[in-house]
Amino acid sequence: MEITQENSTKNGLLKAIKNNVIAGEMTYVWAGENKFIIDHTEVSPKFEGKGIGKKLIMAAVEYARANNFKILPLCPFAKALFERTKEIQDVMF
Q: CA 89 to CA 93: how far, in whole Å?
């Protein structure tokens, strides 16, 4: 599984790719210089139940930690994951 990231000045995208197939995507919007809002996480039906969504969120957490960013999880999946995973709440805004 490969996780790729694309960034622009307004938003970004993380993709989970397995065997050249997009397994899932997580989108975010920048809210200032040091914060981004996770607004959508989607996993392809073929890959549901394999932890792809969590891998995408964890990649976003690693990115936030490495760059001293904060995350506001508005996407219901991301919000629920942040609420039940204390280890990642350090980057939550």
A: 8
12: left (phi over 0), alpha (psi -120 to 50) or beta: beta
Which amino acid does the sequence have at 36?
A: F
Q: Would you list the domain boundaries of the chain?
A: 2-91
Which CATH superfamily is 2-91 part of?
Gcn5-related N-acetyltransferase (GNAT) (3.40.630.30)
**Whole-prediction pTM:** 0.95
What is the distance between the alpha carbons of residues 31 and 35, in angstroms, rounded to a whole number? 5
Confidence of residue 89 (pLDDT cuts 50, 70, 90): very high
User: Helix 76-84 vs helix 52-67: angle between axes, to the nearest 10 degrees?
Assistant: 70
